[in-house]
Amino acid sequence: MSGRTDTAxxxxxxxxxxERTAAALARAGIEDARAEARRLVGYAxxxxxxxxxxxxxxxxGAREDSTLAALVARRAGREPLSRILGAREFWSLEFxxxxxxxxxRPESETLVEALLDAVPDRAARLNVLDLGTGSGCLLLAxxxxxxxxxxxxxxxxxxxxxxxxLNAARLGLGGRACxxxxxxxxxxxxxxDLVAVNPPYVAEGTIAGLEPxxxxxxxxxxxxxxxxGLGAIRAxxxxxxxxxxxxxxxxxEVGAGQEAAAxxxxxxxxxxxxxxxxxxxxxxxxxxxxxxxxx
Length: 295
Hints:
The protein is of the alpha/beta class. The protein has helices at residues 14-27, 33-45, 49-54, 62-76, 81-85, 109-117, 137-145, 158-170, 212-215, 231-237, 259-268; strands spanning 87-90, 93-96, 127-131, 150-155, 177-181, 192-197, 244-253, 271-278, 284-291. It has a seven-stranded mixed sheet, sandwiched between helices. The protein has a two-stranded antiparallel sheet with strand order 1-2.
């Protein structure tokens, strides 16, 4: 393909634009600047990063240049790439974001993997609960792997529940997923086979020291959890044994260094820790639990 010609910027190819953009992002302290540059260039073109990689000779136009300049300024100001693009890939699925949703983290895929590994028959008719659903990424990733399962996602923020509902429809899972606004598990009267919990676990005094992409853009409701970062886990723990079936499994995400303290809280609330899972960086990230058996 020879590429399009533009008389104003006809000498500038996509490859040159990517190089220029990557340099600007690198100066702003953005890691993996070239990969992000490809995505921003693709977005400015109305294409994707794969198109940019495959068509380095494509000629750049003035309209795209203006659009890209605005995008680069936003990213250089440390607005997360996913917020600029409006979506994040998680478990190979695309999730739309909103101001009320946490930007899904790759380490949260540890919960999905842990729960799926605990299911002996993925074709079984299971019911799944996602507490603090945000974009719905945990619940919808699980439902994408469990064809006969049904799920409920709960979030305190109405905007998050609405975004999760949109994601379910876009992914073709709307018929098997419901979302509600609520305070954790306080109003739940049903027992679930699988429970995913991704609570806030950042100590309030440390939020200002987080990367700007997190501290300035993720909703505080999804981050802050008291003075020690364990407040949400304490609030949740007493509810969890009541909402999981006898053979059910709970997977809860914890922050770096919180594994032991979170396990003590869960055990005191009547939960048995059956496994601990590390994320891809080797950080203990997930506690796998079930109700402790009497006696």
